[in-house]
Amino acid sequence: MTDVTSAPAPPAALGTPLPRTDVRPDRTNRRRRALVPYLFLAPVATVLLLALGYPLVRQVVMSFQEFGLAQQFGTAEPEWVGLDNYAALVDDATMWGVVARSLAFCVVNAGLTMVIGTAVATLMTQLAGPVRLALQTCLLLAWAMPVIAAMTVWQWLFDTQYGVVNWALVQAGLADFAGHSWLLEPLSFYAVATVIVVWMSVPFVAFSVYAALTQVSDEVLEAAQLDGAGGWQRFRHIVVPTIAPVLSVVTLLQIIWDLRVFAQIYYLQGAGGLRSQTDLLGTYIYNLGIGQSNYGMASAVAMFMLVLTLVLTIGYVRRLAKEED
Amino acid sequence: MRSTRIAVLGTVAALALGACSSGGSTTSEGDDAQGDGELTLWLAGNDTPEELTDWLVEEFESTTDGTLTVERVDWGELLPRLQTSLGNADETPDVVEIGNTQSPTFTNVGAFTDLTDHLDALGGDDLGPEGFIEAGSVDDSVYAVPYYWGSRYVFYRTDLLEAAGIEPPTTLEEFNDAAVALTTDTQSGFWLPGQDWRNGISWVFANGGDIAVKEGDQWVGQLSTPESIEGLTQLQELYTDASKAPKDGEDAEPWTAFNNGDAAMFMAPGWARWSIAEELTENVGAFALPGADGGAAPVFAGGSNIAISKASPDQDLALELLELIMSDEYQTMLAENGLGPANSTFNELMGAEDDEFATAALAAAENAKLTPAAEQWAAVETARIMEEFFAKIAQGQDVTEVAEATDAQLEDALN
């Protein structure tokens, strides 16, 4: 599952506007300068168009079609069904359950990740060199770990029969946890998934916020301290406003990532979770499309998800754009 | 800064697009081009021993002009990968192994080459089991032929049964009682994970129940018939009183607990025999799960079919490969490795008459049953309807209620 999201633009760069040099009002030169940004954009735009535009168009088209296994194997032509897929989707209680769960999961996970990530970043500014290096190494390892490898280890940890979590709890005197199935109850399933997703996302937030924190002016902080501002007040009124652009971008990314979470949920479902009670949007679409070969409906749900993502993030994007002005 | 704004918008758009394209197709190796004589064979899981594939590669290269690559695809990955690659001439494997219950979906949609005219070269009337051929046929045309079969039977610890003074059971009731009697605080009398429906369904079959039957042109769920409920109730008692296996556990590697000494009995396809720990082997015996009135219970027949992808550019070579698989040498090796051979004349090679395991395998195979031969059955498997159903039974939910709800789900999926 590789896509552009794995290589986000470094957020720190957004805060540094390019210097403008307004000399030589020569016409050709000006035209050339007007062209240059577009030339830089062209390769990215081309890649985006090829890699994402085509599937997107295909997806839009399919969402208005009856497209199943027969169409996939070319033994039947896709049938145009207009808005039928969307109508079925709106009427489907399962679908709204999935949407509600996805939103709740997204809010909880993005929130926890941001709070813990920012806390860890703040901690890093206070730590002595070697300790900070150790912490950063640990974070980096967690971040660099391939999802499936990490998931295998997490599954072992939470294994019903031989898992170390159950073992530790039993050793601690909680005998009820012998043979406890963590993934069977939806809430406990999501708790495990949250631990894993947050664990995987905190390093990115921590590093980004830490980078931003190093830009906070010591003089201003010192001055505030002399004026009698407490630790929390300094953090709230000086640090947060300074790093706000970075916080916004990182929150935005977290919301998008946690809404489209797939690998972790899919893996945990395979390890014991009951699919009908634990599906989130990503796995629901996958199951509809790849699982049940109902590509038309799957595309319709994916379109809905796209709109949902835009609705959730448009506020942030507008604020971000404003901050840049 | 307008340019930054555009950059931000662009990034967000890209992310949002990425968010939604994640459900897209899984890319496949696509390593065989147009009719170049490079064949790809997909085998599912690790059920086919290395020795057999090595022989196949060598033999294929010496008897034909082509070369052969064997790729193993995880069972869990098999369906999605077949769905995305079988239709595409550049990506499709040439010959594929497919679970017997998964065959109808692909044969009905026309993904496989018609083998009806070549059946004689592939074994003719000796091909079997019959249910596998039916699963691979549409009307009178055969598209997928049996690859191997494995009937499920019970493995047990002879020393533990002896110590408890229990004889190997001869009826299902005796079996259930024995399973409970062998259970202690730390040991399961019978190891049965909650989502392991492929073994659990034997209790439904043994009591005369079924999963679904076709009435007219409609599939009707049978899990809530009195016979099925009887079997499911017995099963729930086993889940509560005899098995300490995880209620969310699946049928993968059931021998782990057995090898650890945590279980007195477990049920699995015959090839599980080779996974039992060496220090246990002299204390391990086997019997076919007994039926309600003695004899062998109708268990779920495990195994695979094999077929040629219709989109493959190397049809002739693919057929030669299939003939090689059905050859005497290969069938002999299958049987000797405990996999039920597609050609039934080789059945006796599965073990000498005094081999307990071979006897159990053949006895269990006699009455083995398949899942409904419904075109949409693969959707039931990918939606994990049966897994969830059995997990709910294992958790102690009301049998009748869950069975009725699942029948409705099955009818929804199959019709």
Automatic annotation (TrEMBL), chain A:
The lineage of its organism: Bacteria, Bacillati, Actinomycetota, Actinomycetes, Micrococcales. Residues 1-27 are annotated as: Disordered. PROSITE patterns: ABC_TM1. This is Sugar ABC transporter permease. Residues 99-316 form the ABC transmembrane type-1 domain. The chain crosses the membrane at residues 34-57, 98-121, 133-157, 189-213, 238-257, 295-317. CDD domains: TM_PBP2 (cd06261). GO terms for biological process: transmembrane transport. It comes from the Bacteria. InterPro entries: MetI-like, MetI-like_sf, UgpAE/MalFG_permease. It is found in: Cell membrane. Keywords: Cell membrane, Membrane, Transmembrane, Transmembrane helix, Transport. It is a multi-pass membrane protein. Belongs to the binding-protein-dependent transport system permease family. It holds the Pfam family BPD_transp_1. One of its GO terms (cellular component) is plasma membrane.
TrEMBL record, chain B:
Gene3D superfamilies: Periplasmic binding protein-like II. Residues 1-21 form the signal peptide. This is Extracellular solute-binding protein. GO terms for biological process: maltodextrin transmembrane transport; maltose transport. It comes from the Bacteria. The keyword Signal applies. Belongs to the bacterial solute-binding protein 1 family. Pfam families: SBP_bac_8. GO terms for molecular function: maltose binding. Keywords: Signal, Transport. GO terms for cellular component: ATP-binding cassette (ABC) transporter complex, substrate-binding subunit-containing.
